[in-house]
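Obj: model holo form, ligand = zinc ion.
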Amino acid sequence: MRAVLSRALPAERVHIATDRFTEPFWQAARDRRLIAPRCADCGHFRLPPTPFCPECQSQNIDWTELSGRGSVFSFSVVRNIRGLDDDIVLVAAVVDLPDAPGARLISNVIDADPDSVRIGMELTVDFTPVADGWLLPVFRPLTPAREGEEGSTA
Ligand SMILES: [Zn+2]
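Output (holo structure tokens):
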């Protein structure tokens, strides 16, 4: 039996709020780019964005474009979500971003067999529509789920 693959929440269920500290992140996502704020004074990445650098208290930020690669730092499989179809499975994950050391995103892993998700699993970013025309960064396995399911005897 084919596994039910994880997916993102329906677009109309996700509303984002921007402020001057997070707006650049969301505008970039709309262009299908993943960026992270880096302290312009000490180089420390801070994600989610914060007004002050936790390392040096600077307010100066360089927005840095990332490759979109990630890996699972921690995750939880969420089933039977109130108001959604029973077959919708979410994988909520904290994602390490290797080219932004110290920065992590809370996101979803989509198109994954929930039973195959592991800590350290390699991911690549994708973008899914949410309310009001925004795009939300989500992650999918770097190795698509289908390959493993069909076996490697070919
Ligand atoms: Zn700093």
